[in-house]
Amino acid sequence: xxxxxxxxxxxxxxxxxxxxxxxxxxxxxxxxxxxxxxxxxxxxxxxxxxxxxxxxxxxxxxxxxxxxxxxxxxxxxxxxxxxxxxxxxxxxxxxxxxxxxxxxxxxxxxxxxxxxxxxxxxxxxxxxxxxxxxxxxxxxxxxxxxxxxxxxxxxxxxxxxxxxxxxxxxxxxxxxxxxxxxxxxxxxxxxxxxxxxxxxxxxxxxxxxxxxxxxxxxxxxxxxxxxxxxxxxxxxxxxxxxxxxxxxxxxxxxxxxxxxxxxxxxxxxxxxxxxxxxxxxxxxxxxxxxxxxxxxxxxxxxxxxxxxxxxxxxxxxxxxxxxxxxxxxxxxxxxxxxxxxxxxxxxxxxxxxxxxxxxxxxxxxxxxxxxxxxxxxxxxxxxxxxxxx
Length: 389
Known about the structure:
- By secondary structure, the protein is mainly beta.
- Helices cover about 0% and strands about 45% of the residues.
- About 40% of the residues are buried.
């Protein structure tokens, strides 16, 4: 769930429903047009982007940009792929599979194309520090997968200038993981660099996007589950982006300690105490758990690496469907999961400064913001949404 102004966005089964924050009265809704009812949404600046997935393999993705206050359609389009940022939407069209694509940037409010011609390649959406349906801030450079006959690399990567659509000459090899800009660097990661070794290595290669010169090769590590398996991602199992802010990402050292790593320099900013695995964070704090799937929770100051507080393991189940969704927002840290002793899902609200438990709700964590928490209490076999302020 998300809140935009006075509108609360509820992704229900078969429709995205917007209700009034004060009363719960329905304001508007969007239902997928395809039989599969496969959709997602993103909050992009002051607009809502409604995305309907490909109904069949190779089918186009539908995108509609909506005014959140009244549900008015600002513009809509279809494309083979759609990438959403806070100020722009990129549509990707592919003529011969994924090896022959072109991308166009569109203004988020009007849908107007902003480049003279499309850029050759498929724009990517990998980002740092964006979760919970919030679209990423559009950087000056965005990763793009280009077809390069002179290269032996499979779908090599480059960066494209978001202001002009110019694809820069630097290239990075495709590793099926993440590719993104860190300043003028094209960063590529490989989270299976130590596949089978149990080392949990995540290799990082940074190339100057303008000169094509390699700037550094570095490495961080992913957290471990309690059974010793590598998490591989540098985020919870159900998320696939980097936790952090700007060019700095939450990761783990070779000894298992929390760390903040700067992709722009290839260096560790700080190393925290104890062992951990990244869970959540923002521009102020980073939340780690002792293991990737369970264990004590610790909040670190993102500027200094000092431990603000540590609380015992809440006891949530470790399986993928019972793991902890987490939200760091405002003056609170909200954590949810399945608690065997309670016989169901529980949502716990901690004070961000002290770690003191402020509130506990029966129900699955659906969303939270600076001054609200929403849970699905699921009573008598039916969904029962509760919005707490």
